Amino acid sequence: MEQLYGAAALIVVGFGILYCFGLVAAGALEFRRTHRRVSDQGCGDYAVADEAAASGTTQSSHHVYALVAALNEEAVIEATVRGLLGQSPQLRVILVDDASTDDTVAIAQHAGGDRIQIVSRVLPDARLGKGPALNVGFAHVIEDVLQRQLDPTQVLVCVMDADGRLSTGAVNNVAVLFEDERVGGVQLAVRILNRDSLLTEMQDFEFWGVSALAQVGRMGTGTVSLGGNGQFARLSALQGLGRPPWSDSLTEDLDLTISLLLDGWRLTSSLDASVGQQAVGSLRQLVRQRTRWFQGHMVCGRRLLEIWGSRRMSHAAVFELSLYLSIPWLLVLPWSVFFHVGLLFALGGAGVFDAGSSGGIGRILAWLVVS
Fold first, then answer.
1. Quick check: bond before 152 cis, omega within 30?
2. What is the pTM for the complete model shown?
3. Is the pLDDT at 353 greater than 70, yes or no?
């Protein structure tokens, strides 16, 4: 039993090193190949830009709609709206108010003027999750595009959190990537703005020092995973899905990622732009957030059969995405078991592996299943 445990633990550790650290290394090499430094990208300016200054810069031919789902965000919504509108004169904000009880709507309307459209939802049709809220806003995007007679291939849909901040010039940097007609989506690297405690500093390192580099490493296969903040997608790609883009799953962004890849689109990231957001400030909030993320990640694993049967994805894309969807099952969950078993072994010695022991391993496994 002890030998079996050791072999299984070695396999899990090996998978983590080869895949996770391999992607981080590939991302670092991409920065080096393009003569950029990761530290430079992390020094982006997330201050609210002046609309007049934005109108004086060279603009892309793309029209951009920023979707923002908001619930009682009066403290941050003004800066978010002004920051988005300051990115480009061709950007409009669609704010989906999810039955707020504060002054979110009034503040947003004042900040956005004639370049913001408020979509108000009321109970019981409100507060059903981020995905349904975004889909309501998306329907209004379609209406506005038809009314303005815009080309859907030249329209970008940006998903932002109510407290999100794009780095200066982010929209123009992203629009350049969509000049490649194969690109259906772009996800920006995330920088934590409230780095004022050890917990938020650790989250910043996770997002910026690990996840961002891994995402850049995935650019080679065109399988960058879309997130819930700083997510850009080509309107025609979203329309091509034939259904509302965002599902009601726990991780609607990952579900959309898979759907776009199955349709043959490439998903990439930018080395010249990023998005800032606020991290959760308590350990309890962090555990709840990550539990929801990993549960959603595990549920998306059921789409592996679709991925393996896809004729529009390259072999490299299928392989990488399969590994990514396997992380909760082949790395996180097994490692949590091995960690507790290893701790039990360190405290109780080799006797914990004996069939006649007090059942420590069985209790650990039962606890993990229940939790």
1. no
2. 0.88
3. no
